[in-house]
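To whoever is on call:

I kicked off a structure prediction for a single chain this morning and the downstream step that reads the tokens threw a length-mismatch warning. I double-checked the sequence; it's 296 residues and nothing unusual in it as far as I can see. Pasting both halves so you can look.
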Amino acid sequence: MPDSIVRAPLRADLLLLLVTLLAASGWIFSKEALNGLPPLLFIGTRFLLAGVILAAFAGPALRRLSRNDILTGAGVGVLFSAALTLWIMGLYHSRHLGESAFINSLGILLVPVMARLLFGDRPPRTTWIALPVALAGFGLLSLNAGFRIEPGQWLMACSAVLFSLLINTNSRVVHRLPALPLTVLQLITVGIVLGLASLATEPWPTRIGGATLGWLAASVLLASTLRFFLQVHAQGLTTPSHAAVILMLEAVWTALLAAAWYRETMTPLQLAGCALIFAALLINRWYWVRRLFTRR
């Protein structure tokens, strides 16, 4: 087998692993930045700046887009804005980052379900096996809160539903639009929409500390700009389903980083709940998980 054929999948896997680490780090960066910035102002600023920076790499492709293409990309960006609003509010109210990351990862599991509801696609049999396992995991997490679901958990679960819708929408739009300019349009749209929402609903700080600016910069440059740039590049080297398997590791890295940074620990119920959710993700992608470890 030629070396180039072997190197391309390996390079994609390594890049995607780096992407999951950057995404997981973004949870820490964002949580720290929220100590000095209101949620919508932070997330709007983060994505607007990231979109502007990425636009420098996508200039020629952006100029080739038609007015219809731009409106389509911006429309998906509005949906992205709604999903991120729920995510950042969930993060703002979250008491446990690792748990929140696993709840948010349910969005991956819901992708084939949403495709069935909206587009009539037939999900694989493993999806129907994985769903009750994931629901059992989410149930254990709610039991950990004393037989109730906390606001942060609700918000993360709702954001997962919207992210599953976003992934389905993107998978259809990307057939007509290149991934990088589509990403730029979405990020800039998020920045504008959530910036305006923040202006209308949130009190803005009169002074922003240096530490907060540092966390914002890390969120923009590492967790957004570099992450999306590498993700678009890596996904071009492999199949979407294969990439999705590796991207599931984001929740695991987030839990590990939260344990290291915040000294978070999990109760037995939390561990069991997160383990069941991750098991459900593996079941849902079992064909591709098996291919990942048996590929020659």
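Update from on-call: the warning came from a stale cache, not from the record. Cleared it. Sanity check on the structure: The longest helix spans residues 3-33.
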